[in-house]
Amino acid sequence: MMVTARAMVRKELRQIQRDRRTLLILVFVPALFLLLYGYALNFDIRNIDLAVEDQDGSTASRELVAAFTNSGYFTYAGAAHSQRELDWLIDTNAARAALVIPAGYGRDLRNRVPVRVQVVVNGDNANTASAVVGYAGAIVAEAGAEMLALAAGGGGGGTPRALVSFEPRVWYNPQLRSALFLVPGLIAYISMITAVISTSLAVVREKERGTMEQIRMAPVSPLAFVIGKTIPYSVIAFVSAVLIVLVSMALFGLPQNGPWWLLFLTIALFLVGAQGQGLLISTVASTQQVAFQLALLSSFLPTFILSGFIFPITSMPAAVQAITHIVPARYFVAALRSVVLKGTNIDVVWTQLVALVVFASVMLGLSALRLKREWR
User: Fold this and answer.
1) Could you list the residue range(s) of the whole structural domain that residue 231 is in?
2) Do residues 133 and 216 both lie within one domain?
3) First-to-final CA distance of the chain
4) Which of 73, 204, 332, 376 has its CA at a distance of 20 to 30 angstroms from the CA of residue 114?
């Protein structure tokens, strides 16, 4: 028995040595996933883009801004000189939070008059918003304690009072309901997986049934074949996604503050790109089992981890943040939250829509090129 087992071991080792591709997959792919997702899986909220509306412009107000930016949690995202500019920065996600310092801030502190600053927080991500409110409260409290110590050192009677306090205002999700944060991500997650898997099996099914040769002989171009395969599944996926959205609104109270046509356009562009990705996988895979595994691997983990659905992208290392730019769910989740929660129009989300169009064009184009090479 042991002799037979040793012979089988030697045989398998020789076979693995010949199959270098499988050996590389078994050795390096787990290490790659560990590096990629090990850095991406981070619940720490850092590098929060902070806009500043400084209505005072004094030395004391600049010191407060410096306290935020030097804390390690916030990065300066720009100045807002009006409420309209502040709205635009937060609507476009150029800033996740805004610090509003009232006029007379420095004068009131010199006169030991308590002053209140305002911190506006983008509430479309409930976890990040809760952390931002906590960070801001701690920074303002520390600044107020320093001012109080200075005031006490200067003399004066009476009971000490905090000189600086803050008023948090959470936009778009004042109650910080986790459902309003999770449901748009779940819509992207479910739609991406179902669309990619359903389409990835389309071409492979033709190969396994032996009908691919008949299609090649027919007067059908690769591009027409790709479009013909995409449209039926896209319609089904679109109806399914819309039903998911409607059920989410009915059961979880998901609002629809933006225009419906923009919501449908966003869903359609995302699904076309997902269908194209599935078709590209089906042109590479030889069996439905391999196609299913590739589809699940390429849609499940990136959508869940690298889209900003759960883990904030700004807290990831720069290299991982660069990788997230090729994940379509990143743009879909951002656009979906903007439309349903913020009520924004196309002038705010057009960059996300362009990214989805580019992704869909690349996926469909590569699928057509792959089929064209196989048909020669």
Assistant:
1) 178-375
2) no
3) 51
4) 73
Question: What does pTM read for this prediction?
Answer: 0.81
Burial of residue 259 (number of CB atoms within 10 Å: 0-12, 13-18, 19+): middle
Asked if 128 and 186 sit in the same domain, the reply is: no
Instruction: Specify the pairing of strand 48-54 against strand 74-79.
Output: parallel
Both 73 and 148 in a single domain?
yes
Cβ-in-10-Å burial (0-12, 13-18, 19+) of 239 comes to exposed
Asked if 234 and 152 count as a contact pair (C-beta separation under 8 A), the reply is no
For residue range 94-109, list pLDDT tens digits in order: 899 999 999 998 888 8
| CATH value at residue 113 | 3.40.1710.10
Rounded Cα distance, 117 and 39, in Å? 35
Report the distance separating Cα 120 and Cα 136, nearest Å.
Answer: 10
pLDDT of 233 > 50? The answer is yes
- Answer yes or no: is 14 within a domain: no
